[in-house]
Amino acid sequence: MTTYAPPPQPLALFGPAFAADPQGHYRALREHGPLAPVRIAPDVEALLVTDYQAAIDLLRDTHTFSKDPRTWQATIPPDSPVLPVLGHRPTALFSDGAVHARYREAINDSLALIEPHILRAEVARVARQLIGRFAATGSGDLIAQYARRLPMHIFVTWFGADPKDGERIVDGVAGMMNSAADAATAYADLVDVVTRLVADRRARPRRDLTSYFLAHPAGLDNDETVRQITLVMSAGNDPMTNLIGNATLHMLTDERYAGSLHGGAMTAHEAINEVLWRDPPIANLAAHYPRHDTEFHGVRLRAGQLVLVSYAAANSQSPPPVTDDGLRSGASAHLAWSAGPHRCPAKQPALLIAMTAIEQLTSLLCDARLAVPPDELLWRPGPFHRALAHLPIRFTPLDTTAAPSGAITVADPSDVIPAAAIDS
Ligand code: HEM
User: Fold this and answer.
1) What distance in Å separates the CA atoms of residue 60 and residue 95, rounded to the nearest whole number?
2) Which residues constitute the signal peptide according to the record (predicted)?
3) Would the pLDDT of 325 be above 70?
4) Separation CA 79–CA 234 (nearest Å)
5) Measured on CA atoms in the order 301, 85, 332, 247, is the torsion positive or negative?
6) What are the extents of the domains in the chain?
7) Atom 10 of ligand 1 has which residue's CA nearest to it?
8) Residue with the nearest Cα to atom 19 of ligand 1?
């Protein structure tokens, strides 16, 4: 059996050095075995799984590992910047067994109401409006002006939120993932917006996903509903932004795409699949805690200690991952959507949103190219995501006199959620 020496110091997975070269960090960690110690904040250590098979084993092993962080959390400073992401909340993400199944059913059933062709049309409509706001200028930042805003507008429609709260929702979600000092405030603000929304729909149901959550047979009370909706928005918005941003960057920089959005022969679909392998939007997460002292893939684990999975490292393992079922290849084997009971429940709508968002860019801003050299792009700090801070582009200005350029109009949720799904 191979024995591995731990690194002299846990490697820091936060700050500019990590953001500039995550794959270099994963290569260094692999030298120390399938799991290696890391720091995810100045005073917070974790074990990071970098091996594909170990990642799969952990994600599926609900007997050995729990998702409940409370024992670990008691050992962490209460103002730690990682707590808005890792700290316990009564949601699917932090629950096991029957509790998880109950929350997950409400989430799955609500996402199943989304009709793909209606979603595609709605994403295209919002995309054209967002592009219309900057198309006449010949330049724009595709993160701030497009990728960060588009998913939020879709969620605002799904849940029937007041469009005026949309900016607070997107700021709350992005602030949580940054693991910066104001992360706790960002989460509190998000909860505040959704709490008012849920109280309103309890009193006055409408045909939207908030009312559907409240009416679901799982019988969620107001707080449980607030927490699950907040989870869907926070688990959804930031990775959606990153998927659109990372795949668009890939198209703008990979020579097969010829340096402009419409120049190459490959499709948005292929660009998305490649970044799900190479630059997954959620890079390191799947926080798990051993229920008892144990040994896992040759490494001693203490009960309650924090173990994270590096989706990005497992995906980029070389030679390619070999699983129990033999060598896997093809897009479905990457871990960007996680695996096991907590895998992303929104893979299909998320792919559709990303694909449609990028197709609208390629058709409207077909000669768009990067406005700065790729090595001058900044990535947001933080251990959990792979997220561009900006994506500046230039293109031939469009005549937008006939196009909408003012406030983004929000569809009535009852136009987006099929009537039969909610009224029955
Ligand atoms: C419509 C957009 C999305 C929604 C509504 C959404 C929703 C969710 C929810 C509710 C969970 C928690 C599931 C549970 O604990 O049982 C989850 C988990 C997850 N989602 Fe998504 N998601 C979206 C987009 C994405 C995207 C674009 C990615 C990345 C490609 C992604 C990757 C993941 C991963 C990796 C997890 C596991 C989290 C962990 O590591 O603990 N999701 N998602």
Assistant:
1) 14
2) none
3) no
4) 20
5) negative
6) 11-423
7) 232
8) 344
State CA 342 to chain mean position distance. 13
Structure tokens at 353: 């949103």
- Is the CB of 55 within 6 Å of ligand 1? no
| Distance, CA of 248 to CA of 29 (rounded, Å) | 29
Q: Looking at ligand 1, which residue's alpha carbon is closest to its atom 12?
A: 93
Q: What pLDDT was estimated at residue 400?
A: 75
What's the pLDDT score for residue 393? 98
Range from 44-58, 287-301, 360-374, 400-414 carrying the lowest mean pLDDT: 400-414
Topology of domain 11-423 in CATH is Cytochrome p450 (1.10.630)
pLDDT of residue 327 exceeding 50: no
CA distance linking residue 278 with residue 272, whole number of Å:
10
Q: By three-state DSSP, how is residue 282 classified?
A: strand
Q: Where are the alpha helices (DSSP H) in 254-286?
A: 268-278
Residue 261, both tokens: 């959005």
Cβ burial of 38 (10 Å; 0-12, 13-18, 19+) is buried
Phi, psi dihedral angles at 343 (to 5 degrees): -60, 160
Q: Which tokens in the block code for residue 289?
A: 């805690």
Q: What are the CA-CA distances from residue 380 to residues 177, 281, 383, 397 (Å)?
A: 9, 12, 10, 29
* Mean pLDDT, all residues of the chain: 89
Rounded Cα–Cα distance for residues 286 and 289 (Å) = 10
For 384-421, b/e burial (b = at least 16 CB within 10 A) is bbbbbebbebbbeebeeeeeeeeebebbebeebbeeeb
* Residue 240 Cβ < 6 Å to ligand 1: yes
pLDDT tens for residues 373-410?
999 999 998 999 999 999 999 999 998 765 555 555 65
Separation of alpha carbons 281 and 244, rounded Å: 9
For ligand 1, atom 39, the nearest C-alpha belongs to 286
Give 283 Cα–ligand 1 centroid separation in angstroms.
12
Structure confidence at residue 322 (pLDDT): 53
